[in-house]
Amino acid sequence: MAKLTSHKVLSFDVYGTLIDWESGIVTALSHGYPDLKIPRVEILHAFHNLEKETQSRHPDLPYSQLLSKLHPALASQLNLSTPSEATSQQFGDSVGSWPAFPDTVAALHRLHKHFKLVVLSNTDRASFAATNDTQLPGVVFDAVLTAQDIGSYKPDRRNFEFLVGYARDHWGFGKDELLQTAQSQFHDHYPAKEMGIRSAWIVRPGAVMGEQGEKGEEIWDWKFDTLEEMADAVDNEASGM
User: Fold this and answer.
1) Among 178, 150, 126, 162, which Cα is nearest to 10's?
2) Contact yes or no for 155/186 (Cβ under 8 A)
3) In sequence order, what DSSP letters do the residues of 124-181 get, joined into one string?
4) Which residues are catalytically annotated?
5) Which of 44, 40, 47, 98 is nearest to 70 (CA)?
6) Are 135 and 99 in contact (CB under 8 A)?
7) Judging by beta carbons within 10 Å of its beta carbon (0-12, 13-18, 19+), is residue 237 exposed, middle or buried?
8) pLDDT tier at 217 (50, 70, 90 boundaries)?
9) Does residue 151 come out as left (phi exceeding 0), alpha (psi in the -120 to 50 range) or beta?
10) Among residues 99, 122, 100, 103, which one has the least CA distance to residue 48?
11) Per-residue DSSP letter, 121
């Protein structure tokens, strides 16, 4: 079996894996509805379904605009009042304020000693830049590949084909040297397996969105609760422990 350290590139889903997007989404929604008392799980299930539907219908829409577009429908599903255009715009612009998990930044610095770090995210360039500046300070990625660059949203196969082509053309790496590192089974692990790309599942216990694929199976080659645990495993392999 391949080792973690036999790979050259870690390709990251960002939101859900590095960034606590579930807390970020609930907080952003509450800014427009200060008295929000709907259970977190209900909000996230509604958001996940609407996001999937909207991404399928508008694959070329930048993520911040997509969030603004789905916001009124999310409010409707949750029996909230119809938001103003400004409130929906604020929701769409909230991505950069979604917080990183506490272990993320330190773990990325450790992992960068062993691998190239690549973003493969469903966001847009401006939203990710805001995240990188405010939530992931000092973290440098070797490549940033967003849905805006690719023209489709994961789990579309095209996003993973783009990743494979980028790694081949820029660094001469084959897909057996890539390791998709992600929380979402739906967005990442299922399509990665279909592409023949190995994956590390960062479970983030308690996560609601994307936790299971549509068939209810869990797909992974390595499994860790946190990114810090993965960094520990990589360091142990590299030191021969």
Assistant:
1) 178
2) yes
3) -HHHHHHHHHHTSTT---SEEEEHHHHTS-TTSHHHHHHHHHHHHHHH---GGGEEEE
4) 13
5) 47
6) yes
7) middle
8) confident
9) left
10) 122
11) E
Q: Locate 222 and state its tokens.
A: 């390595």
For the segment 76-126, what is each residue's pLDDT rounded down to a tens digit?
A: 999 999 999 999 999 999 999 999 999 999 999 999 999 999 999 999 999
Residues in the chain: 241
The rounded distance, in Å, linking the Cα atoms of 186 and 216 is 10
Angle made by CA atoms 100, 106, 107, in degrees to the nearest 5: 90
Secondary structure of residue 75 in the 3-state scheme: helix
Q: Name 40's Cβ contacts closer than 8 Å, sequence gap at least 6.
A: 22, 26, 208
Neighbouring-strand partners of residue 222: 200
Mean of pLDDT over the chain: 95
DSSP 193: H
